[in-house]
Amino acid sequence: MWQWSVFFIGFLVGIVILLIIVWLLYINKIFFFEYCSETQPTCKRDNYFSNPSDAIANGYPVNEILTIKNGNMYFTRPPVTNNCTPGNNQTILIAFPEFCAFQTIDGVFEGTNGGIGDTYIVDIDGEEVEVVTSRSCNPISPDYIISGTPILAWT
């Protein structure tokens, strides 16, 4: 009976000594721990959300990831996980925002991107009008649309 208790205590002491040795090897990056990274890796392309819809669905607020500067909308790509360090420039120009405000002589009307890219569907006095734009909501046709600006919103 006395022999089993001595064996059990010796076994526990041996495990503690082995854990201390492994911990010292890891802390000093010796033996098979020499290839372990000491710093957090830089995020790669797949470590970021690639579109605003995914980022918003995962809890990022619109005003944190979308900005409007000089009439252009930009998307700052947030990281998918927090186990990497974000790179310097993750800001992307959104050429065709999801929503635009269009100015006519009758007022300002909100348009929604029709999914084609440069075409927006605008409800003007109950009539759906297709507005074709160049980058950043600048209207090309119809002629009575004076100007357009991106709206800081996304779905």
Describe the protein in words.
A six-stranded antiparallel beta sheet has the order 8-7-6-5-4-9, with no helix packed on it. It has three domains: 2-33; 45-94, no CATH class; 99-150, no CATH class. It has helices spanning 2-27, 52-57, 62-65, and strands at residues 66-69, 72-76, 91-94, 99-104, 107-113, 119-124, 127-133, 139-141, 147-150. The relative contact order is 0.13. With 155 residues, the chain is an alpha+beta fold. The longest helix has 26 residues, at 2-27. The chain contains three helices and nine strands.
DSSP summary: helix tally: 3
β-strand percent reads 25-35%
Compute the average pLDDT.
88
Q: What's the structural domain tally?
A: 3
Poorly predicted spans:
none
State the separation between the terminal residues, measured CA to CA: 71 Å
Shape: rod-shaped
Structural class: alpha+beta
| Spatial strand arrangement across the major sheet | 8-7-6-5-4-9
Largest sheet: 6 strands, antiparallel
The helix/strand order is: HHHEEEEEEEEE
Summarize the entry for a quick read:
This protein is α+β, with helices and mostly antiparallel strands and 155 residues long.
Show the helix and strand layout.
Elements: H1 2-27, H2 52-57, H3 62-65, E1 66-69, E2 72-76, E3 91-94, E4 99-104, E5 107-113, E6 119-124, E7 127-133, E8 139-141, E9 147-150
Antiparallel strand pairs: 1-2, 2-3, 4-5, 4-9, 5-6, 6-7, 7-8
Give keywords.
23% helix, 155 residues, 3 domains, 9 strands, 6-stranded antiparallel β-sheet, 3-stranded antiparallel β-sheet, alpha+beta
